[in-house]
Amino acid sequence: MTAGNDSVLELLPMVFAAPGDALSRAEGVLDTDPTPLHASVAHQVIGIWQRDWGDMRLALDHLRRARDLAARAESAEREADVLGTLGVALVHAGRTRQGLAAFERGVERGTGHTRARVLYRRAYSLWVLGHHREALEDLRRTIPVLRQADDVIWTARALTLRATVHLALGAVDRAEADFTAAETLWDTTGQEHDKADAVESRGLAAFRSGDVPAALRLLDEAEERYAKLGTPTFMLDIRRCEVLMAAGLAPEALAEADAAIAVLDGIGGQSTRKAELLLAAARAARLAGDPGTAIARAAVAERLFAGQRRTWWETHARLVLIEARVATGRASGRLVADAAGLAERLAAFQAPAAPEAWLLAGRIALELDWSTDAERYLRRAAHSRRSGPPLARMTGWAAQALWARATGSRRGVLEACRRGLDVLDDHRTTLGASELRARATAQGAELAALAQQASLEGGGPRQLLVWSERWRATALSTPPTRPPADPALLSGLTAFRVIAARAEAARMEGRPVPTLEREQRRLEREIRSRTLHIRGVTPWGGDRFGGDRFDAALLLERLGDARLVELAVLDGRVQVLLCGGGRVRRFAGGLLAEAEREAEHVQAGLRRLAHPGAAGRLPVVEEAGRRLEELLLGDAAGQLGPGPLVVVPPARLHRVPWALLPSLRDRVVSVSPSASGWLRARQTEPPPGGRHVLVRGPGLASCGAEVPEVAGRYGRPVVLEADDARVPRVLQELDGAALAHIAAHGTFRADSPMFSSLRMADGPLIVHDFERLARSPYRIILSSCDTARLASVGADELLGLVAALLPLGTAGVVASSAPVNDEAVVPLMLALHKGVSAGLPLAEALRDARAALPDDALHRATGWAFTAFGAA
């Protein structure tokens, strides 16, 4: 082999070190009238580039020419190498039979080292096809030869592939060992694309071991590496979708999969990747509650997999198809048989999805009252409860709970649900971001519902309360984990504020802002990504429920003369649990859906009443309040007693203005996301020093007129206004304050609740900013619109400003769940602070403040819009 030959052959490893440069140099070789051997190498390089990142039709053209030129050069080793590359391309193009034939020819033509490389490529293609055992056999033959030849690059590739196959079979420990060995080899090379792929694979391994934050961090790192190389990332997109779904972010996974499919179609890319992306989209749509889209995507994926002779993948697509059909309300003997048959095939494949299929078969059989079949299938599914990743174990416990219910064992149901929810709790402790913790709870919704139903049917009100608390507001039980001085996050937050402020100024001046909005969205994605990477820590020695099991007796003791109403929802109906006087009583409420509709009517009415001249709407709003009381409290409304009341509503009723309900208008009422949360707030001690902080943001119609007058009630408070009301200074003063009052425009972001904000002089103060506080103010009063609006996510969780404050040390909040009239807010706030400065709790001071307002529609609506949260 001549020096010139060596130079041309160097282009092959260069494809995965510097893809763009390799493509340019290969095209340059073809412009120089090369020998058949050199031309073969150049066409192979171009074919690899097009195969992995471009047009599959062009890839096949170049690789066939490379094969023909190698034959003309009479180099069997060159021809074998090209046949290995061509085989991969044919498989990715969906021409499985032709691809496997190319591999057979390549293995025949090659010897030694070259044959080992062909076998590696065939192993890769067998993995793509879902033939995992056959892939491992080829790798068994390949790796020793590559090691003996001291071929670092191809040995590292083979180890990475073997690790990936092990993951597909659920052998996480074996995969980790191979990934570690491969990474050591990659560190000695300049193969930048291969290195990016190794990082991506480590992300997949982290996910399979249950570490979602690490998986997201590694996948984002891999994406950054690919971006520097300018190569598309379709396999990465598929893996990210899988992680996003496990994190409870199914709508985002669906959007990402659909976007990747559009890009892939635009370049004429790999048919195999398109089928896998369609499967990811189908799974995401099903989890997002869109079975119609799931059926459409899964059906196309199934057809593609069948045409590509990818039985393993076809079976997985079929599973999603049946799950989606069941979600539309279909149940039949045919679906039971189909699901059971799929479970058998998945078990034969050693696929981790087998328990999911057994559970599906058992669930359908139960619905049809086929008890014998249901027992058989659910027992198979329940085998996964003892080992494996968290979601697989929860599948097993769900199967165990369903079977216990079918056999009438209430105790068995509760034990299975307890064990399954313990698994979820352990999983959530790995999640540092409050958003991930909240969304992850959706994975335990069925277990919680089964336990609550069993408690309702035979356990009594107190047991139902315990199980409602076992499930409610779990994400708020501990504060989010703060990254230790993450400079990238701080930089991103600062840049976001600057861009958001510029965009807002441009809108007010009537100037177009598409460029600024694009940059703002980019920064939001970057900030959110950094927070999702944060790994959780387990406080209080790892105990659940915020360190202590919920104690109903302790709650009843601490309530004293007060009463607590916890609203549980079972089968769509509200169950009212009235706690106080040493006992827990249950009352029947109305349908949750009807209560939600009435709450929306009330919100619409309050929006109208925030403007002068809408007094005619007042009777309509009051009547809606009466209907809400009937639906939410039922007969319990007459049993509340005279003392203070704590309301613990489900997440979907967080916007109810409780002071509007007739029985509650003249009462001291506070709201808490859980009874456990109320107990924690009650036990929270105010910080020493008693610092009071008053903040006045820009742009209020009232100019925050209450702030100067309120300042006189607190001696020498810290007053931040004009240029002093900038986010860094505001956060500095809020940290550990005894009382904070913030008069600033509030914006609720339904599309991204963690970016809900208060407008400061230098831009928005967002929820992510508050989560950086070591301790948020003991009491905080937010006097502007929509500051109490929250997004209902997960099973029964909340995201938004108030939800962020409560786990951070805030014991009491006053905020508004509706738009309010800025000027009408001023007298309410002055009256509120009169009570607070006299030593009253927030809820009592708010009750008295409402009574002190003028008795007109505008001021009454303003008073109803504000709610006291917590216990301070």
From TrEMBL:
Pfam annotation, one family: CHAT
InterPro entries assigned: CHAT_dom, TPR-like_helical_dom_sf, TPR_rpt
Domain CHAT: 623-870
Protein name from the UniProt record: CHAT domain-containing protein
Protein species of origin: Streptomyces asoensis
Taxonomic lineage: Bacteria, Bacillati, Actinomycetota, Actinomycetes, Kitasatosporales
